[in-house]
Amino acid sequence: MTHEFKIIDKEDIALLKFPKTDVLEDVDEIKTRISELNRALALGNLEHSKIKIFFEDNESKKIVDTTVWGVTDKNVMLKQGVMIPIHRIYKLF
User: Fold this and answer.
1) What strands, in cross-sheet order, belong to the sheet with 6-7?
2) Cα(24)–Cα(21) distance, rounded to whole angstroms?
């Protein structure tokens, strides 16, 4: 799966544009994504562990290795106020 994703620096995410559509269509995959988000948040807050976030903006699929600082109902929050819309995330691990 990794070969189709381009590595991006966390600082560059703020410059990206995100469509409104969800990258996942399967209900089970969406539920799995929520579980992965909660796990990533716990790892970020308790152990300051980095995780890989696989996501897609309006141009291509990307991957970032970062710490999750917070999760809202719509976004994943990273350091320095950088956010990724949850509906544009494929997977976290």
Assistant:
1) 6-7, 61-66, 51-56, 89-92
2) 9
How distant, in Å, are the alpha carbons of 5, 6, 22, 47, 64 from that of 74?
A: 22, 23, 11, 24, 18
pLDDT tier for residue 47 given thresholds of 50, 70 and 90: confident
What pLDDT score does 48 carry?
A: 84
Q: Please, which pLDDT band fits residue 46 given cuts at 50, 70 and 90? A: confident
Cβ atoms < 10 Å from Cβ of 3 = 5
Non-local CB neighbours of 22 within 8 Å, separated by 6+ positions: 30, 87, 88
| Chain centroid, CA 61 distance in Å | 11
Q: Are 44 and 12 in contact (CB under 8 A)?
A: no
At 46, which amino acid appears?
Answer: L
CA angle 27-57-66, nearest 5°? 85
